[in-house]
Write a structure and sequence with these properties.
single chain; about 280 residues; alpha/beta; five-stranded parallel sheet; 13 helices; 5 strands; globular
């Protein structure tokens, strides 16, 4: 991997000190190559990811409580769906707990904002994926004044405590903030309007939200600064180049799974006896 990355992805993409207003969303931090080398590498690394995820799943089937949670945050068209399809889609779906959080339902609105989040947390042995997450409650809620500041302001500390609880219970949290430029977002929205196979992805409100871009940038900056913790750090992904964002997040997941240092579960039966039984069957 050293020949492809001048700095490991887990270091190059850390949110420490990142200013969103200065972020080059077409950059490829830490990566030495371009698309022509990135795509073949992505294919190789998704195979590695799949093998590691299978080991996580196998341990879960044997009673291990460890899990990994990938939190995907980003403006519309940032590529969150592409990560789910092309990165998470490369692993065994039996071992994936996926949740997409949209506008809260009437039932969800009657509960604390973390209620629906807790219900969707990954089980032991699972790779959990949040397409949007509890961070909507300090992003869109803040930008659109859906609740008073006195209500959303304490949520940063509350989220930190919640994620501390998750990590203490054995969940490795990988938080990814994906950023595209206004121009790239417009290009992707235009594509959705020009291609019948993309109509289903288009929401007219996506255009309306562009008017709130500065407010969202401010809200994302506060999110990074207030909830970037040692136990659940943020990683910032320049997402104008889809191949890079997919490769980068693949690398982050591989790192998280390798850090668990899992081995294959030991047999709970007499292997030789079962071989003999099989020969007689």
């Amino acid at each position: 991997m050293a020949k492809h990355w001048s700095i490991p992805a887990v270091e190059a993409l850390r949110a420490d000190g990142v200013r969103i207003e200065d972020l080059d969303t077409s950059a490829t931090p830490g990566f030495r190559g371009d698309k022509s080398s990135g795509l073949p590498l992505l294919a190789q690394r998704t195979t590695v990811l799949s093998d590691l995820q299978e080991k996580l799943y196998a341990n879960g089937r044997s009673g291990d409580k460890c899990s990994v949670l990938l939190v995907l945050q980003g403006m519309d068209t940032a590529g969150k769906g592409g990560i789910v399809r092309h990165v998470i889609g490369s692993v065994d779906p039996q071992g994936v707990d996926h949740a997409a959080f949209g506008v809260p339902t009437p039932e969800e609105q009657r509960h604390h904002y973390l209620w629906r989040i807790r219900k969707a947390l990954p089980r032991g042995g699972q790779l959990g994926v949040f397409d949007r997450s509890h961070y909507e409650d300090v992003l869109v809620v803040r930008v659109h004044d859906l609740v008073p500041r006195a209500e959303w302001e304490p949520r940063y500390d509350e989220i930190n405590a919640f994620e501390r609880e998750l990590t203490d219970e054995g969940t490795t949290v990988v938080k990814v903030a994906m950023f595209v430029s206004l121009d790239e977002q417009k290009s992707r929205l235009r594509e959705r309007l020009e291609r019948p196979d993309k109509y289903w992805k288009f929401n007219p409100s996506d255009i309306d939200e562009r008017a709130f871009w500065p407010a969202y940038q401010e809200a994302y900056q506060a999110m990074l600064e207030r909830t970037n913790t040692p136990y659940a750090p943020w990683y910032v992904i320049p997402a104008d180049r889809k191949w890079f964002s997919r490769l980068a997040i693949t690398e982050l997941l591989i790192e998280a799974l390798e850090t668990l240092d899992l081995d294959w579960p030991k047999a709970t039966f007499d292997i030789e006896a079962e071989k003999r039984r099989l020969e007689k069957a």
